[in-house]
Structures are given as structure tokens and as C-alpha cells.
Write a structure and sequence with these properties.
There is one protein chain. By secondary structure, the chain is of the alpha+beta class. The relative contact order is 0.14. Helix 4 packs antiparallel against helix 7. The chain is globular. 30% of the residues lie in helices and 26% in strands. The strands form 3 sheets. Strands 2-4-5-6-3-10-13-12-11-9 form a 10-stranded antiparallel sheet. It has a two-stranded parallel ribbon with strand order 1-7.
Length: 436
Amino acid sequence: LTEMRVRTPWIEALRKKEEEGIDPTQRSNTPATPSDRDLAPKRMSDSYHRVVIPLAQDPWLLDNYLNANGQMRLGTIFMDLDALSGVIAYNHTGESVTTVTAAVDRITINHPLKEICDLELSGQVTFATGRSSMEISIQVAKAPERGASVQKEDVLMTCAFTMVSLDPNTKKPVAICPVKVETDEEKRLFAAGEKNYNIKKARAKTGLRKQTPNDEESDLIHAMWLRQLDYHDPNNPLRKPPHTHYMSSTTLSSSQIMQPQYRNRHNFMIFGGYLLKTSFELAFCCAAAFSHSRPTFLSLDPSTFENPVPVGSVLYLKATVAYTESAVDGASDAHQSAGVENGEERTEGSGTRVQIRIDSKVRDIEHGSTKPTGQFNYTFWVDRDISVMPQTYEEFMVWVDARRRAERVRGSIDGGRVEGVGDGMKGKDDGRRITE
């Protein structure tokens, strides 16, 4: 899949760029998309694509998908998911536009793998109204026997990508074909995509850049601030518990130059799957360093891509423990770490859900300009009772944003809208899983 995204050797693409004297990463005023292209509605099945990765049959291929412990390397699968979403998007739009990843709405582990097996990756466009964006739904499952269909218990993970089509020259959004809905199942999928689209629009209006924290959030922030004063009061015997860590002490950072081996099909930008892979692995390291244990991946929560990452630029990633949540009753650790419930002790041995936020930015090699490239949010399970506490106003806003995300996920689980997440969120395991 990742090999399918590139169609021209790097040396040829570089020579063509030098010969033509045109930088394809820069915008021009001349549109390249034909004005008379066919925008008639397309069936969902027109964009359907299925790929089988023969991991159980090819040990050398399997090498690329295993980590040091012999577990499935999820970052590599994330690369495949983004590559597949690109194939599906171009099945729907054709080759006359440039399609980029705008967001990953969620990647959820439904049923952890228990054995090495062939994997089937499949998906299709499930929501498109004729604007520039489309939602692509994908699942990863244990590949069924020839002629058989995938069973519910064989689905490893599900996810949704939002892709946006741009004019190759102007880099402005262009219209695409709407989806034609025919069956009851397609109507259900389209309605779910439409609902997700409307929810994202509504949330953008109530984000922390637009509105202040609500009354409940303000009360929690104030309680945590008061508790920090108690921790530093020499006349107060109360001190910060050993299981509580300040947010500023949890950060991990990385930087790396972007090489052409991870470019997208348009040759001069890094493809989104590589950003998912690198951000996930940094998030995993951050959760491990924070908890002093081996974390278990639960989900990639709604994450956004903002600006493209050019080949040859320098990518900076910063991981932060943004929020923690005890699994005793699903309540926030804030009530305990902030001392809202005076005198109440934490329940030992319950474990914690840890949300890691990755902020990314890109700079040119001369470090003359800087642009944000996206925010990625990962949730892990750790078998320890541990919590994070913000100190500055900026950290409190990070905490509130992450808390809102956790509340939305919990609400969707309670409402049954995120299939298969409930058991995984409990963090229970029989020890035989081979996924990270």
C-alpha cells in the first residue's frame, strides 16, 4: 500500500522540477482542474478497495510489521490506513485533483489480534455531498477464507478519514462527485457521516479559541489551582501525592528531517501516514516514560492535519500527557488529584487511561519560517494509578480540551455509537494480544 502512493522515482521528479523551473509546492493563479469534468453522483461501491497483507505467509513482509517484542507495530498499519484512504479517495475523484488527508476522526481497536494472520484492509467513501471533502470508512480485519466474509469478532480496528480535494496548482478546494445512496446500509453509513460532519462544525464554534471554559470546567481548574497552593504552603502538611505528576514534566520532543522516501504521490510533500506513524511512536514513548510501564493502545482520537510537510523540511513533534482518567468508575482523576473529594483515597490496582497530545510543526531547513502541521491525540491504557496536573493557564486549556475529548468518547460508548470500544476501554486483557 505505501509503495502504491509513489509513481515516479525521486530522481526523475527532482530533475523534472529543476528542468521546468517550477516549484510544485507553491501556489499559482492558473487552475489545473478541468472546468468541464464530470461531477455526476457515484455509488459507494465505485470507490471500494480491498487489500490483503499476507503477514502469515511472508516472514520478510512480516518483519516490517513487528516490533521488538513480536507484537504488531501499529504505526506501520496506520501508514497503510492513510495510503488506502488515498487510493479510495482517487477512486472517487479521479486523477485530475490533489487529495490530501484533512483529519483522522478516530481509529479504534475493536478486537486485539491473538495470532499472526493475514490482514484485510478495506474501505470506501461513505459521505460526500459535492463539496471538496469526503469521509472514508475503513476496517482492518483478519483475512477470511476465500469466498467467506469477515466476521464481527475478526475486525481488528475501524477508522474514518476525512479527505479534501484541491486544485493541483492553486491549492484551493474543488468540488467532487457526491455519493449516491442506494441500500439501507448505505443510507445508514451516509447518515452517520453527515452527523459526524455536523458535529465537527458545531464543535469548531464552541472550541476554547472561541469560548471560555464552562462553569464545571472553571470549578475544576480553580480546585486544582487551590490544591497546588496547598502543596507549596509550608504551614500545610499536604504534599503532592507520588502518583500525581505536573504536566510540564511529562513532555517528550523529537525532530527529524523529512526524506523523500516518505513522500506522497505528488512527490514533494510527506504523506499523512508517515506523520501518523511517527506521532504514534512518540506518543507511545511518552506514555511509557510517564507511567514507567508498557502502555496498551486504545484509540487515536479525532486529530487534524493543518499544513503540508515538504520534503527536505524539519519536522518537530512534542508529546504531552494531556489528561488521565481512572477506570474505577470512569470519572476524571481531577477529582482526586485536585482534592475535590476531600479525604477520598485512590483505588489501587485499577489502572489509568492516559491521553497523549502530539503538537507538530514544520520549519524549512534554514529555519526561516514555521508552520503548525497538525495535532494528534492518542489514548493508552496503563496498569498503574497515575494522574497528571496542569499548572499554567496554557496547560489548563490543554487539560480541558483533552477532558472534553474523553467525555465525548465516553458518551459515544454509553450510547453504543462506537462499536467494540467498550471492552477495550476497560483495559482488560488475557495476556495473549499481539497488538501494541
